[in-house]
Amino acid sequence: MKFLLSLLLLGLQLFSSEAFITPKQLKEKLDNKNLVILDTTDTKVFNEGHIPNAISIDAGKFRHQVGKYQLINSSSDIQTLAQSLGINNDSEVVLYGHNIDKDILKASYIALALVANGLENVSILNGGYPDWVSEYEFDNLISKKTTTPKRGNFKANFDANILVDKDYVLDRIGKVAMIEARPSEYYYGKKQSPGVKRLGHIPKAKSSYWRDKFDIDYRVRKDSELKAIYLDNNFLNKNKEVITYCTGGLEASMNWYILTQHLKFKDVKIYDASMREWGNLDDTPLVK
Questions:
Q1: What is the pTM of this model?
Q2: Which of 157, 190, 248, 263 could form a disulfide with 118 if both were Cys (CB 3.0 to 4.6 A apart)?
Q3: Is domain 15-136 annotated with CATH 3.40.250.10?
C-alpha cells in the first residue's frame, strides 16, 4: 500500500508544475517533449543569449489597446497565439526574463493569460536568466539559435471569474479585500503614476507593491515572508475574494500569480485596466 502511495505521489510530482522553479529543475526538464520555454525579454537581448530551445515572445501580443489602457486579448486570439508558440493543452510552459525592465511582470502577465484560458502547467523560472547563466554558463546550455516551434493544438477554455472591470470593482469597494501593486508613492498620491491623470488609490485598497515579494536578485521570497505580507500586513484570507490592481495590469498580474499559483488562494481577481482607466476618469473615487 505504501509503495502504491509513493508511486502516486511521484506521479503527481512529475505531472504537476510549481509556480516558481529553479534552474536545476528546469535543466531536468529540457528533454521533456511537452516543455515550452518562453523568454519575455526584448528581441535584441534575447538574441545575445538565451536558454536552449527558448522562444522569444512579446507580452504585448497577449493584449490590445482600448483608449488609454490595455486589456487581455480574446480567448480565440490567445488560443491562436498559444498554438503558434507550440503550446498544447498538456504542455508545461516555463516563462523567464533577463531581470531587466519589467521582464518578470511580462512573465506573470503571460502566465495569467494562459492560466485564465485553461492551461494548467505554467511556471516562472526563479531568478530568471541570470541565475541560469550562473549555474550553466560553462555547460553548453546557453544558446543563440532561433527555435521555430511546431504548431500546437491548444484549445482555450476561458475562466470568466478571473478578470473584472471597473463596474465590478466599484460595486465591491469596502465589501471585498483589494490590494494595489504599484509603488507606495503612487498609492499615497505623492507621485503621479505614468499615464494616469489623477492621484491616489481606490478606497479601502491596501498597498502591496509587487517588488516586495522578491529579493534583490528577483528570487521569490520564502513562503513565511510572503504570508506575512499578504495575510498579516494586507489582512487577506486565502478562502475569500481578493481583487488586485495596479497601473495597467502587469504589476497586478504578479500579485495574482503569487496568490493563486503559489500560495493557492481560492478566489483572486484582477482589474486589468487598473489605474490607466480608473485614474483617468473624473467620477471614480480615489483617496490618498
A1: 0.94
A2: 157
A3: yes
**Distance between CA 50 and CA 132 in Å, rounded?**
9
Distance of alpha carbon 262 from alpha carbon 259, whole angstroms: 6
Amino acid, res. 182: R
Q: pLDDT for 213-258, tens place per residue?
A: 999 999 999 999 999 999 999 999 999 999 999 999 999 999 999 9
C-alpha distances (whole Å) from 143 to each of 91, 95, 174, 239 are 22, 16, 51, 43
Give percent helix, percent strand, percent coil of the chain, each to the nearest 5.
Answer: 35, 15, 45
pLDDT of residue 9: 41
| Cell numbers found for residue 196 | 494616469
Place of cell 508558440: 85
| Cell numbers describing residue 12 | 503527481
Domain residue ranges in the chain: 15-136, 163-278
The residues with which 56 forms a beta bridge, in sequence order, are: 39
CATH class assigned to 163-278: alpha beta
